[in-house]
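Summarise what follows for lecture notes:
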Amino acid sequence: MYDTKDIKNYILYLRSECGLSLTLHPYGNESLISLSDLITFNIHDNPYCVYIKTFERAQKHCIERQSKVRQRCREGSFCGKCFAGVSEYVYPISNGHVTVGFISVSGYRTENADSFIKKTAEDYVIPEDRLREAYQGLKADMPQKEYVDTLLRPLCSMLELAYLRAEDGATLEEGQMDKILRYVKRYHTRNITLDDICREFACSRSSISHRFKRSTGKSFREYLCELRIEDAKTLLRYSLLSVTEIALSVGFCDSTYFASVFKRCVGVSPSEYRKGGSK
């Protein structure tokens, strides 16, 4: 039987060695993906999607549109495009009985991109010039579906076996902390605070703080900062947004403070990182 560590390692292989920008999208908050370290792969990391998700209405619409993806998953895997003009391959995830989520292999440009960019900018009040710059960070050429099929079949099988094992009670442990981590990952570019989480989950500050440290090895602020820095690295590497714009986009309210935190975490300044000063 496969466990989530095996699955995580295979996903990392697909990303690093095969160049596939792969994400997992469960249908509910109580799934195997949501309640394990696989939640790390729940968010697109290409610069275009990273930039769009900093606009709340656009991010909300993206989540809502997943219902249409679910409907298409009934017919099996397919090639499609999102409302913002990103092409992707989609593969259903089964628990052995029903579809419980899907895998997205995304981050590719699409035909008629200009119309998608214009509409997205108008609908969600996003600066069109910046949106175009971020779009250039998408990959120009999609691999053949047959090639992706070959690489994704093992992952689909591994996930199905893991779900079957979880249903037998061997791996799936529901916990409030898992839901909290999912919440923070979804809203980390917003001005969320520990108090916001306390209100959302009806917990005290001390309880949340202790849980964060025990579960992640980091404080809430450290964990939140880490998520934002990872987004910033993506935008610095692939977009033409200014350092100030990136700082604001990922959740920092001050570019000077952002630069200081970035250098402490990464070892170089944002500008040096953009020039290739660090991987």
In short: Residues 145-167 form the longest helix (23 residues). Residues 4-167 form one domain. The radius of gyration is 19 Å. The mean pLDDT is 87.
